Amino acid sequence: MTARLIDGKAAGAAIRQQVAARVAEFEQRAGRAPGLATVLVGEDPASAVYVRSKNRATAEAGMAGFAHNLPDTTSEAELLDLVAALNADDRVDGILVQLPLPSQIDSERVIAAIDPAKDVDGFHPINAGRLAAGLEALVPCTPLGCLHLIRQELCSIAGLEAVVIGRSNIVGKPMAQLLLGENATVTIAHSKTRDLPAVVRRADIVVAAVGRPEMVRGGWIKPGATVIDVGINRLPTDDGKGRLVGDVAFAEAVEVAGAISPVPGGVGPMTIAMLMRNTLVAAHRRAGLADPEGL
Ligand code: NAP
Fold this sequence. Notes:
This protein is an alpha/beta fold. 40% of the residues lie in helices and 16% in strands. The longest helix has 23 residues, at 8-30. Bound molecules: NADP nicotinamide-adenine-dinucleotide phosphate.
């Protein structure tokens, strides 16, 4: 059996197109475009690439972008001042502070300082708590993107066994909450889980968010399962360019799964698409408008 490939590139592009259409509608109703502020502290090359693509996607969606690039010597107080200014700026609907931050800055304090209504990354404890309580929240972009892909693949998630490998606040925990919200029976596995292969073998839906190249083997997968690979791991190659692989041994798993998301081209493009979606949603809620339908 060869699994269907879950095309995150196409799904992400479709969402971004829908968002762009709704941006135009929002602008007509609110008299301004939704606005996203990005904050990059320091020169970490991977972070710079991520922020550049987020800024580009913002412009392509027709939203207003406010890019702040700060030196890596920025103090926590200076960053908190900027966050306070962005909280007070009415043109800004979303605030994204790119992580990781330099060591002199406490990330948790910075996240907690962001207005929860503008927390388009969904990392603020208020949004995490609201998601856990089943209330309206801004939800982290990567697990939201994974849920979209799973929903596209499966008509109904209710009653299915889902195993999420990884319990980070950014991916694993919110992913588990979202699947629980869809009435899946959810297990969260982590580094202390006993007999992980046996736990994964029960799953109709597997979400791997570990950060260990090709850890999940084909023999762990229940035949026909839907497999979402969040991992992004760069393996060294002779030409020095490196090769991206996920947390799932793709060549093995593709022979067993019913559907599988590749790396790259699976979850990655969904994250930015959902950031655009969250910014649009935040703009609607801040303007007192109903959430845009179908997103
Ligand atoms: P993280 O904070 O490092 O969390 C990793 C999780 O994996 C932890 O909960 C850890 O368990 C668990 N783990 C580690 N070794 C394990 C093992 N041997 N068996 C079972 N569980 C194990 O990572 P993250 O931020 O969630 O990211 C996970 C991966 O997704 C990374 O590759 C990252 O690059 C990628 N990612 C991709 C996107 C995207 O847009 N596609 C976005 C975010 C992250 P403990 O809690 O017990 O330590």
